[in-house]
Amino acid sequence: MMLFTLMRSPYQIDLDILLQALTAEDALLLLQDGVTAAVEKSRFLPRLKACGAQLYVLQEDVAARGLVAQISTNFAVIDYNGFVTLTIKHQQQVAW
Predict the structure, then answer these.
(1) Nearest 5°: CA angle at 33, between 29 and 34?
(2) Element (H, E) at 3
(3) Of 3, 19, 43, 90, which sits most exposed with the smallest number of CB within 10 A?
(4) H/E stretch holding 95
(5) For 18, how many CA atoms within 13 A lie in the half-sphere containing its CB?
(6) How much is the pLDDT for 64?
(7) Of 38, 31, 93, 43, whose CA–CA distance to 71 is shortest?
(8) Phi, psi of 76 (to 5 degrees)
(9) What pLDDT, on the 0 to 100 scale, is given for residue 3?
């Protein structure tokens, strides 16, 4: 059970490598510029939905980028308290 955090734009990383590392027991939290991958019309969304991991976005970063109405319903929108809860639940973490 691992928490993966994606802080960079999905255009700046090799998303396929990240997705290969994820399992159904893992969680993926998108924050900072990573939240753009959760936009409903994102070309990355189909692969993220198919990865099997629990998907989250950080509410404050979504709002800061003006994307509130565009985030896919496949992602749970969490605040900083939710972020802390995820880090407690997933003691092993990998940042991207």
Answers:
(1) 30
(2) strand 2-6
(3) 43
(4) strand 92-95
(5) 28
(6) 98
(7) 38
(8) -80, 130
(9) 98
Question: Helices then strands (H, E): number in the chain?
Answer: 4, 5
CA dihedral 59, 63, 69, 72 (to 10 degrees): -40
Q: Mind listing the pLDDT tens digit of every residue in the chain (96 residues)?
A: 999 999 999 999 999 999 999 999 999 999 999 999 999 999 999 999 999 999 999 999 999 999 999 999 999 999 999 999 999 999 999 999
Give the domain ranges of the chain. Answer: 2-95
Q: Do β-strands 54-58 and 27-30 pair in parallel, antiparallel, or remain unpaired?
A: parallel
Fold of 2-95: Hypothetical Protein Ychn; Chain: A, (3.40.1260)
Type of residue at 36: T
